[in-house]
Specification:
Length: 334
């Protein structure tokens, strides 16, 4: 039995080599008007998440992306710009494109600032979906930095709804580098509790915290990122540019010796992994630990592709004239 609210490898399906799955994703993106370099970059991000079994933010996003790119809602050829920079901060305009392109430019700028100042941060705005926010904290972790990323979409509170409906799935991520142990990568949506009135009575403090968490993500990665600007909202806005992001990094070396830090992180992580697991799980892991292990495993054996997921991609491919070529891997069925 698995917890329903997270990604897992499928119980039944076939194994697809990463290079093949990357080609399928790239061919599907090639059916849009995206520039080749952006399609290459996005294909890399999506297949990497498939390899981590983060399917919800891997190739399962393709129907959503193709619909909006081909439907004229998202700019397929955005001119992403760093529109302002002051000290260790910056602001990025995504020109109505997918948020991946804006966040790539934004996080590259953040890392540049962090190398210079010991910390850096930026907002991104005027773009569509940013994907898994863990993508952007991992960029910081790969440099030996601590990373933070969050994103919000335009969300107008409904006066007819209880305030417990305010929390939404706006994501946030923290990434911490380690040594020999898996890096600690928290990548979660900020809507953490169900709308259950009985549960509210039993643990109201949990709902107060959930409201505060979601409102904070909205304030820093939505309002501060300018997603409510009049020129970006219908009917004035040309694109469905309804998302923003806040990206930040800190250089561990500004606070302590990097070797001392990684040794302590490894000690902490190793200790946590020796604890008893949650019910229904086979092992105890900190956030990002399971994905780290799945990525190692799948790099060798291939990406586990469930039958329903396969059908989704094959149907999408048939619509745009792409051959997935999955039949050749039937011998790997599990």
């Amino acid at each position: 039995m698995a917890f329903r609210s997270r990604n897992y490898p499928p119980e039944h399906g076939i194994l697809i080599p990463l290079a093949h799955q990357r080609r399928v994703i790239r061919d599907l993106l090639g059916s849009t008007a995206m520039r080749a370099s952006d399609a290459d970059y996005l294909a890399d991000r999506l297949v990497t998440n498939d390899g981590r079994c983060l399917y919800s933010h891997g190739s399962r996003q393709l129907p959503h992306y193709l619909e909006n790119l081909n439907g004229g809602n998202v700019n397929p050829d955005p001119d992403v710009q760093v529109v302002s920079s002051f000290g260790a901060t910056a602001r990025v305009d995504g020109d109505g494109g997918l948020g991946y392109m804006a966040c790539r430019v934004g996080m590259e700028k953040v890392l540049e600032l962090t190398e210079k100042f010991g910390t850096g941060s930026c907002t991104t705005g005027n773009h569509f979906h940013v994907g898994s926010v863990g993508t952007w904290t991992r960029m910081a972790v790969e440099k030996g930095y601590i990373g933070m990323a969050m994103s919000a979409h335009r969300n107008r509170p409904d006066p007819n709804q209880m305030i417990t409906r305010l929390p939404n799935a706006s994501p946030l991520s923290f990434g911490f580098p380690a040594g020999d142990q898996p890096p600690l990568i928290l990548d979660m949506g900020s809507n953490i509790l169900p709308g259950d009135e009985d549960l509210m009575e039993k643990m109201p403090h949990g709902y107060f915290k959930a409201i505060g968490l979601s409102a904070s993500v909205q304030a820093i990665s939505g309002i501060l990122a300018g997603i409510y600007r009049e020129e970006l909202t219908p009917p004035k806005g040309k694109w469905t540019a309804n998302q923003g992001a806040f990206l930040c990094a800190w250089d561990v070396r500004a606070f302590m010796d990097i070797d001392e830090y990684t040794e302590e992180m490894d000690r902490f992580t190793a200790g946590a992994r020796k604890m008893q697991p949650l019910p229904c799980l086979s092992r105890a892991e900190l956030p990002g630990g399971m994905e780290w292990q799945w990525e190692q495993d799948n790099r060798e054996r291939g990406i586990p592709l469930g039958d329903e997921h396969r059908e989704q991609l094959e149907n999408l491919a048939a619509e745009v004239g792409v051959d997935c070529g999955y039949d050749q891997f039937e011998e790997t069925r599990f």
